[in-house]
Specification:
heterodimer, A: about 300 residues, Rossmann fold, 8-stranded mixed beta sheet, about 35% helix, globular, B: about 230 residues, alpha/beta, 6 helices, about 30% helix
C-alpha cells in the first residue's frame, strides 16, 4: 500500500524555497535553491551527507525573514541533482564553487552542516577571497581512533569494509532505493536521525523522495551508502581551522548520535582561530539546526550582525 | 617501452561496468591458464599489443582501461579516487576470474589496493614504474578548486589527471593493503615491487612481510610458477 503522489505533508515553520534553478558543474546538473530577497546579503549554505537542501526548510526561512538571501544546492547524487558516475571530496568542492560563482563574486557568508561544514571549511581555506564569515554547524570531525584491537583484527575489519563496498558496487548499477509509504520511509530515515521528530521525517519524504507506481523512494543515488574507508584522516580537516582568517562561528551538538562525528569541545578548542566564537549545545544532537532552529538561527544572525 | 611486434595484431575488446562507468577490457593475447591483468599508468591506456616484457608470461594477457582513460567512459564532472579505480579492477576480475596483476605507475598503486581487497582473486601483484606512481604525497597539500572544461571529450579525462595526481597515499594506509593480501591470499609473497622509484607509500610497503623486491622479469617468473 502506498500513499498518493500528490499527498502533501506540512511541518510547522517549514517553507519551500522562493526560487529554484539549475547550475551545470562541468556538465553535471545541480539543483540550486534560494530563500529570501534576491538583493539580500547572501548566506551560502551546504547540507550534510545523505541530506539535501530541503533539510534547511525551517532554518533557512528564519534567516531569510531577517533579510538574508539564503542559497543552497543539492550535492551531486543527492536530492534533485544529477547522479554522477564518480564522487569525491574535490568534486564536491568544485560543485560548491560553481554554484557560488552564480551567487556573487564578492565575499559572502559560508555556512555548512556536517559534511557540508567540512566542504565549506576547505572552500574557505582554498578561496579566502570569497568568504566573509564561516559558520560551521557540527561539521568538525575529531580524530577517530580504532577500538582497542590487535593489528590482525583491525586488518580483518578493514578488509570486511573494503570487500563490502566492492560487493555493493558489483550490484549497485541495477539497484533502486526500496519503495515504501511515507511512514515507512520516515521510519527508515529515523534510524539515522533518531533524535528528529517523526512529523519532520514525514515532511522530508514528500520533498526528498519521489513517488513511483510502487511507492515512495528517496531520490539519493543508490550507489551511495554510509560509512566507508580510504586514506582521509579527520585531523586533516581540523588542521584547516586555525588558518581561517574570516570571522568563525562553530556550533557543536554534544549529544552523540549515529550520523555525528563524536567531536568533543576539547577536540575543537585548541584549533579555533583567534577571535572565533564556539558554542557547544547541551542536549542537542548532530542536527543542531533542525533540533533547535530558532536558537541556531539567532546565533547566526547575531554573529553576522 | 617496446612492443612485441610479433603480437601486435588487433586485440579483442569486451566491456564490463563499474556501476555507471563502462570499462574496456583488451584481450591482448589468448591462451590457457591464469591471465595476467595489465593496469596502465596515469593518462596511459592499454597498449595495442602485448609488451615485450610479458613475452614469457605463459597465459592470456588482458589490459584494462581505467575510467576516464582509453576506451572507457569519460564521466561528467570528475570525482576520481584510487579506490574507485580499484573497483574498476574488481569489475574486470569478476569477468576474467583470478589473475596476476601488473600495474604501472598509478596502476601499481591500484594493483596493491586490489591485492588486499580481493586476495582470493589476485594471485600476485607486480608494482612497476610508470606515470602516476608518486600520487599526491602522504598528506593533503594546499587546497585548490579548479573547474575544468566540460567540453573536453577525448581521453584521458583532464579531471583524472588533476585528481589522481593529487591523490593522497599515506604509507600506513598502503601497508594495510599489504597485510590484507598476506592474510587472505595464502601466498608467502603476494606483492612484488619491481619499481626503481620508491615514493613514500611504496617505501613503506617494501619493509612489510609478504613483499619481495625483484626485477620485472623475475617477478613475472615468480607468479607464473604459482598455482
Amino acid at each position: 500500500m502506498t500513499d498518493s503522489a500528490d499527498e502533501t505533508v506540512t511541518y510547522p515553520g517549514a517553507r519551500r524555497p522562493d526560487r529554484t534553478r539549475w547550475v551545470s558543474s562541468s556538465g553535471l546538473q545541480l539543483a540550486v535553491y534560494e530563500w529570501g530577497p534576491e538583493d539580500g546579503a547572501p548566506i551560502f549554505m551546504a547540507h550534510g551527507g545523505f541530506d539535501f537542501a530541503g533539510t534547511f526548510d525551517v532554518f533557512a526561512p528564519m534567516l531569510a525573514d531577517a533579510g538574508y538571501r539564503c542559497v543552497s544546492w543539492d550535492a551531486r547524487g543527492h536530492g534533485d541533482s544529477e547522479h554522477p558516475v564518480l564522487y569525491n571530496w574535490g568534486a564536491d568542492m568544485r560543485d560548491a564553487l560553481v554554484v557560488l560563482d552564480t551567487v556573487s563574486t564578492d565575499p559572502v557568508a559560508f555556512l555548512g552542516h556536517s559534511k557540508g561544514g567540512g566542504v565549506m571549511l576547505e572552500l574557505a581555506d582554498a578561496c579566502p577571497h570569497r568568504v566573509s564569515h564561516l559558520i560551521n554547524l557540527d561539521g568538525l570531525p575529531s580524530k577517530h581512533n580504532w577500538p582497542d584491537v590487535s593489528d590482525r583484527e583491525r586488518t580483518r575489519m578493514v578488509q570486511g569494509e573494503v570487500q563490502g563496498w566492492l560487493d555493493h558496487r558489483r550490484t549497485a548499477g541495477e539497484k533502486q532505493r526500496r519503495p515504501g509509504t511515507i511512514d515507512e520511509l520516515a521510519e527508515r530515515r529515523g534510524r539515522m536521525n533518531p533524535r528528529l521528530e517523526l512529523d519532520w521525517l514525514r515532511y522530508l519524504v514528500t520533498i526528498g523522495a519521489r513517488h513511483d507506481d510502487d511507492g515512495w523512494r528517496w531520490k539519493i543515488d543508490p550507489v551511495l551508502r554510509p560509512g566507508g574507508f580510504g586514506p582521509w584522516r579527520p585531523e586533516w580537516s581540523m588542521h584547516r581551522v586555525p588558518g581561517i582568517g574570516a570571522p568563525f562561528l562553530g556550533v557543536l551538538g554534544l549529544e552523540l548520535e549515529v550520523m555525528g562525528w563524536g567531536t568533543e569541545p576539547d577536540d575543537v578548542i585548541p584549533y579555533l582561530p583567534s577571535g572565533a566564537r564556539f558554542v557547544p549545545l547541551e542536549d542537542v544532537g548532530h542536527f543542531v539546526h533542525i533540533e533547535q532552529p530558532r536558537l541556531v538561527a539567532d546565533l547566526v544572525l547575531e554573529f553576522l550582525a | 617501452m617496446t612492443i612485441d611486434s610479433a603480437s601486435a595484431s588487433a586485440s579483442r575488446l569486451t566491456f564490463v561496468h563499474n556501476v555507471k562507468a563502462q570499462l574496456a577490457i583488451h584481450h591482448l593475447r589468448a591462451g590457457e591458464g591464469r591471465p595476467l591483468l595489465l593496469l596502465h599508468g596515469l593518462a596511459e591506456r592499454t597498449p595495442p599489443a602485448v609488451p615485450a616484457y610479458l613475452a614469457d608470461w605463459p597465459g592470456p594477457v588482458v589490459g584494462l582501461d581505467f575510467t576516464g582513460h582509453g576506451r572507457s567512459t569519460i564521466p561528467a564532472g570528475g570525482g576520481y579516487t584510487s579506490e574507485v579505480l580499484m573497483a574498476d579492477v574488481d569489475a574486470a576480475l569478476a569477468e576474467i576470474g583470478p589473475a596476476t596483476v601488473l600495474g604501472r605507475g598509478l596502476g601499481a598503486y591500484i594493483a596493491l589496493l586490489i591485492a588486499g581487497a580481493r586476495p582470493d582473486l589476485v594471485r600476485g601483484s607486480i608494482l612497476a614504474d610508470g606515470p602516476g606512481l608518486v600520487g599526491g604525497g602522504i598528506r593533503p597539500s594546499s587546497p585548490q578548486v579548479v573547474p575544468l572544461d566540460p567540453h573536453q571529450v577525448s581521453p584521458p579525462d583532464p579531471f583524472a589527471l588533476s585528481e589522481l595526481s593529487r591523490d593522497v597515499r599515506p604509507p600506513d594506509y598502503a601497508v594495510e593493503f599489504v597485510r590484507m593480501a598476506l592474510q587472505g591470499s595464502g601466498l608467502d609473497q603476494p606483492i612484488a615491487v619491481a619499481s626503481v622509484v620508491r615514493p613514500e607509500w611504496l617505501a613503506g610497503v617494501v619493509g612489510e612481510f609478504g613483499v619481495v623486491e625483484l626485477s620485472l622479469a623475475k617477478a613475472i617468473v615468480l607468479y607464473a610458477s604459482i598455482e
